[in-house]
Specification:
Layout lengths: L4 H28 L29 H5 L14 H19 L6 H24 L4 H17 L2 H8 L7 H21 L7 H41 L7 H26 L6
Helix pairs in contact: 1-3, 1-4, 3-4, 4-5, 4-9, 5-8, 7-8, 8-9
Bound molecules: zinc ion.
Length: 275
């Protein structure tokens, strides 16, 4: 490790900067996907004066700090949200690359990073608009397919607790195990308890996580979502509530610790011996 240290420092610095740049793109997604605007044409402008933001003021994290969070032309405050999203994505990328040793399992690390970016978009977009973009859901499903074709085989073994010759059946069980009960809740509550976007999200994430991870994700999503919902209702009396952000948190946790948490719960509850 010690003689490799300079390489790790270079890689980690690059990963952080790359994560911040992707974070910048995520802001564009969060803002433009609900309005079905193009993600590519790059003319970010001030929300107050409409002035186009100059290239030098578009450096992730740095620009916002240099400008002290104010627009260069009109001085109106710029939401710290943009910088928070950039920094969050950068820190998560760095954490994932350290947790899954990038030299050992680069493809799995990259796919989990991309999954986290998609979850950040779901979190903030659903929070703002109560919508989950189908594009993001399709992107997550695509990551799941790539994971099973290209990721280190050990992760697939880890996911199912045993070597699996054809993991596709397991992928499909993961896809339906949580999403079908959610669909039933959505239909029975006529969309009040759960939106169709939540159903699709958990189908795509279940495909990525496998069945055990999907169950852990919905468990954590329900717990954090109920707490957040109670706090929100207590504070504002508002009953409009987005569930997607908390499902995202559950999926994010399950993508790293799904197997350990699942096995721990089976053991703890006596429901079954962990595989
Ligand atoms: Zn301005």
């Amino acid at each position: 490790m010690s003689e490799l240290l300079p390489y790790y420092i270079v890689i980690y610095t690059f990963v952080f900067l790359f994560g911040a740049s992707i974070g910048s793109f995520l802001n564009v997604c969060i803002y433009r996907l609900p309005k079905e605007e193009s993600l590519i044409k790059r003319n970010s402008h001030c929300m107050t004066c409409g002035e186009e933001i100059k290239r030098r003021d578009l450096i992730p994290i740095v620009s916002w700090c240099l400008l002290k969070g104010k627009c260069r032309s009109c001085g109106a405050p710029i939401s710290p949200r943009y910088t928070i999203v950039e920094a969050l994505n950068a820190i998560l990328y760095l954490g994932i690359f350290i947790y899954f040793d990038v030299m050992q399992t680069p493809i799995h690390a990259i796919l989990v990073c991309l999954l986290y970016s998609a979850l950040i978009v779901v979190f903030f977009m659903d929070w703002d608009t109560q919508l989950i973009s189908n594009y993001v859901v399709i992107f997550i499903a695509l990551l799941a397919v790539l994971e099973y074709f290209f990721s280190d085989h050990n992760f697939i073994i880890d996911r199912f607790g045993m070597p699996v010759d054809h993991p596709y059946g397991q992928m499909l069980i993961g896809m339906f195990a949580v999403s079908v009960p959610l669909l039933a809740i959505e239909l029975l509550s006529k969309g009040r308890a759960m939106g169709r976007g939540d159903v699709y999200l958990m189908a795509a994430c279940g495909l990525f996580l496998g069945v055990k991870g999907a169950v852990v994700a919905i468990f954590i999503g329900l717990i954090t979502g109920s707490v957040a919902g109670m706090i929100q209702k207590h504070k504002s009396g508002d009953s409009v509530f987005a569930f997607g952000p908390w499902l995202s948190v559950g999926v994010a946790v399950a993508a790293i610790w799904g197997q350990q948490l699942g096995n721990w719960y089976l053991n703890f509850s006596g429901l079954g011996a962990p595989e």
